[in-house]
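Ops channel
N.P.: pipeline sanity check, posting one input/output pair.
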């Protein structure tokens, strides 16, 4: 859009907002458009404003016909397309769209406008290209996930749906987007099975669908199949279906669009690249090129579901939402309204015929390896299930009587339990599923379900992991303990998490242990760097060098621990993986000769921003930490000199000198560190898409990135302290008294600070460094995790215990996560009780021998 048009557009929007009496912040909250976007629009710095943003703004500002017309003319003249007489919304309503009458969003005679896919003339080429790349990556990722879950072996379990309670759905006329007075058509397609889900969705004029089902009923499998089938027929302008685990969304803290943007950048770091003032992920969201597939609404905290439903109703774009029925119904009651414009369907249970057809084909026969004349391991079970079904206790698998077979029929009515039964009995030699028919051992459905959940992990760890050439044979009991530790720490009093991110595992430690780990790491790094550099090129004797290192180490440890403790106190103690590399000016988007990557520094988050703003933010955050480090260094040097002379002298002159050194060293270290990190941050560029195919790839990329970061930081910090120190001392000389900064001393101090500070930073304030210190050393030393945690997680994924969701792992099902967490807590409680009993029973009767003497 030409600059004069941008100026006119900016003036019009600002005038409309002022007439409405709204601030930019209030308009952002009312419209759902970010405050930064509004600021750019009103300042004329948004060269390609999206129609979706402008439509939301004019609706929030209650724009009149004249304002709408002028807004449409400005936009049309800048894009070379005719303006709609009703304003911007005419374009979004689908007047220029293409497709069939069944496509969501097309305006048909007698229908209201529904959300439509954007027109090619309204979306920049780079955004369309990014959408295509994301679609290809998502399709590849979920195809591999289906293979890993063996969905098609021997054939997919049936997942059927039916119409649900009308009280949970919007009015049919609203779903069909009919004008007042029009009669809603009779729908005969509110029933179907898995292969039909994408076609069924495309026939919803509103583009909004809710899928309900009990735990383990196949909702996640349905979403994966939906994404695959939708992408099969996707065109360049169709939305890209992206699965989001909505259980981690806090609707009171983040808008849905902002949260989805963060998740896109997490799973696709190349989308952090700048695009017209925002990230490419944000551009995809604003261009309405993402179809949110929100999985696990029921996994949100109970107090947040009603608010989440209200926020979803403010989000008018197409979506697919999955939930358990009870939790969704409670949210509807809390919000006082269902999800607007949405069709609601419910998944049906498996029938006895479904189970009887599936399980026998998953097992080898017991009559010989190749003969095929013996009875199958499931034959006795399926015969009993069919008998009970024919006796009239319900062909839908919901019988609840006391006869043999009925609890098993109820337990196997979900694909999850049927899959677990396959693992325990079809894939283990000598296992007999007929034991599940024992009414004394398994009197009800829950006992069978707990048995299947409890046996799953030991069963999969008794065989070799598929797809791994050098797979390790982990002990089943230890593996269950480690998985239980992870599952336990995903639980939260307010909200249970599903995402198991490798960079967050270190945060499972208590706060004191986390701070202690930072202190010990920095202490060791600073002491070793002082000893090595001091013994090689230092001016002091060996014993003074050792003394200096012994003092500098704890000083650095306390400084780093203080900075980290302050970050935790303000809720900023979690570091996400490095998703950037060093980009040289003029280097273009391709690989750079120098790939020194820099992690996001403390307090700096979000997509790429303007270099000056990034430099300023990073400089301020790092300078504070550097100043604390300088103060600690000055104190350590003061103590070292006092001890070197054999006496502690504390008078006014000494204290004054120490205070001056604290200020000078604080300024030198703070300014030097802030300058280095700020300049490197200004040259950050997102990683490319090939680096984030899975969590292990992201971990490997971060390991290489942090190593290159240390190579860049050590000399830059050394030089900045050495020469920056001379400049600062020159400026302050006389003002703070006689100051001295010899060139050789500056180079020595700079080298020590560069090596010790750079390595300490890498191990304490980057995701990979904290992974090494805590997940590879601290937690294995305490027995909480294995020594090779990354290999263990990847092996658990290959065995089907974990699944991949973008850059993170998740447990195969939330019920398995809950079971492992409960088991871990129960064992920990039993262990605590044993220790308590030992502590309370000290004395002769504490040992077995003493107990026998007492019985005598």
């Amino acid at each position: 859009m030409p600059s004069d048009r941008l100026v006119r557009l900016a003036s019009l929007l600002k005038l409309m907002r002022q007439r409405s009496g709204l601030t930019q912040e209030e308009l952002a909250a009312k419209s759902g458009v970010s405050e930064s976007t509004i600021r750019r629009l009103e300042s004329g710095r948004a060269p390609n404003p999206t129609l979706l943003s402008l439509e939301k703004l004019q609706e929030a500002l209650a724009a009149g016909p004249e304002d709408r017309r002028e807004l449409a003319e400005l936009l049309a003249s800048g894009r070379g397309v005719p303006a709609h007489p009703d304003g911007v919304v005419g374009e979004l309503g689908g007047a220029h769209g293409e497709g069939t009458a069944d496509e969501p969003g097309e305006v048909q005679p007698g229908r209201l406008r529904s959300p439509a896919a954007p027109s090619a003339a309204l979306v920049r080429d780079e955004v369309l290209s990014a959408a295509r790349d994301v679609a290809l990556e998502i399709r590849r990722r979920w195809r591999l996930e289906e293979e890993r879950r063996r969905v098609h072996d021997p054939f997919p379990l049936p997942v059927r749906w039916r119409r649900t309670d009308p009280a949970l759905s919007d009015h049919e006329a609203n779903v069909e987007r009919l004008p007042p007075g029009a009669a809603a058509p009779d729908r005969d397609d509110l029933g179907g099975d898995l292969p039909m889900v994408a076609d069924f969705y495309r026939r919803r004029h509103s583009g909004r669908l809710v899928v309900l089902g009990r735990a383990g009923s196949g909702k996640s499998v349905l979403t994966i199949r939906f994404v695959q089938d939708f992408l099969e027929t996707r065109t360049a302008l169709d939305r890209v279906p992206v699965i989001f685990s909505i259980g981690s969304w806090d609707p009171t803290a983040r808008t849905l669009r902002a949260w989805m943007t963060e998740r896109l950048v997490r799973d696709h770091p190349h989308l952090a690249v700048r695009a017209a003032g925002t990230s490419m992920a944000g551009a995809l969201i604003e261009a309405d090129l993402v179809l949110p597939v929100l999985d696990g609404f029921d996994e949100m905290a109970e107090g947040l579901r009603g608010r989440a439903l209200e926020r979803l109703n403010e989000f008018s774009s197409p979506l697919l939402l999955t939930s358990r029925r009870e939790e969704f119904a409670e949210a509807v009651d809390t919000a006082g309204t269902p999800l607007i414009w949405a069709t609601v369907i419910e998944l049906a249970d498996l029938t006895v015929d479904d189970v009887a057809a599936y399980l026998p084909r998953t097992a080898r026969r017991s009559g010989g390896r190749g003969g095929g004349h013996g009875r199958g391991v499931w034959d006795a079970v399926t015969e009993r299930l069919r008998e009970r079904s024919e006796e009239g206790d319900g062909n839908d698998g919901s019988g609840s009587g006391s006869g043999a077979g009925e609890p098993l029929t109820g337990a196997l009515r979900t694909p999850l339990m049927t899959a677990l039964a396959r693992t325990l009995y079809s894939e283990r030699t000598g296992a007999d599923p007929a034991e599940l028919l024992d009414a004394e051992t398994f009197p009800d459905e829950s006992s069978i379900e707990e048995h299947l959940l409890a046996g799953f992990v030991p069963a999969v760890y008794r065989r070799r992991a598929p797809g791994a050439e050098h797979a390790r044979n982990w002990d089943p009991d230890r593996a269950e303990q480690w998985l239980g530790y992870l599952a336990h720490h995903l639980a939260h009093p307010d909200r249970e998490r599903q995402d198991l991110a490798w960079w967050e595992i270190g945060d499972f430690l208590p706060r004191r242990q986390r701070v202690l780990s930072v202190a010990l790491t920095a202490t060791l790094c600073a002491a070793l760097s002082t000893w090595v550099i001091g013994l090689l090129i230092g001016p002091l004797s060996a014993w003074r060098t050792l003394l200096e290192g012994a003092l500098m180490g704890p000083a650095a440890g306390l400084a780093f621990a203080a900075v980290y403790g302050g970050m935790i106190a303000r809720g900023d103690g979690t570091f996400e993986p490095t998703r950037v590399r060093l980009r040289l000016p003029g280097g273009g988007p391709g690989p750079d000769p120098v790939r020194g990557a820099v992690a996001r520094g403390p307090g700096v988050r979000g997509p790429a921003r303007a270099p000056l703003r990034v430099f300023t933010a990073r400089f301020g955050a790092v300078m504070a930490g550097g100043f604390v480090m300088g103060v600690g260094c000055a104190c350590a040097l003061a103590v070292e000199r006092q001890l070197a002379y054999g006496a502690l002298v504390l008078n006014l002159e000494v204290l004054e000198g120490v205070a001056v050194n604290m200020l000078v060293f604080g300024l030198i270290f703070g300014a030097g560190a802030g300058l280095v990190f700020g300049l490197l941050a200004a040259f950050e560029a997102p990683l490319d898409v090939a680096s984030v195919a899975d969590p292990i790839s992201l971990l490997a990329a971060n390991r290489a990135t942090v190593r290159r970061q240390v190579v860049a930081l050590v000399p830059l910090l050394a030089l900045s302290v050495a020469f920056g120190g001379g400049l600062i001392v020159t400026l302050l000389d006389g003002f703070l008294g006689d100051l001295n900064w010899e060139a050789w001393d500056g180079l020595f101090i700079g080298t020590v600070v560069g090596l010790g500070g750079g390595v300490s930073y890498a191990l304490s304030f980057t995701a990979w460094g904290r992974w090494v210190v805590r997940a590879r050393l601290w937690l294995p030393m305490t027995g909480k995790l294995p020594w090779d945690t990354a290999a263990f997680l990847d092996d658990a994924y290959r065995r089907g215990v974990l699944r991949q969701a973008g850059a993170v792992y998740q447990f195969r099902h939330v019920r398995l996560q809950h079971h492992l967490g409960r088991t871990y807590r129960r064992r920990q409680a039993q262990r605590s009780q044993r220790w308590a009993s030992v502590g309370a029973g000290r004395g002769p009767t504490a040992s077995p021998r003493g107990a026998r003497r007492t019985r005598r």
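N.P.: looks fine end to end. Residues 3-92 form a domain with the 434 Repressor (Amino-terminal Domain) fold (CATH 1.10.260.40).
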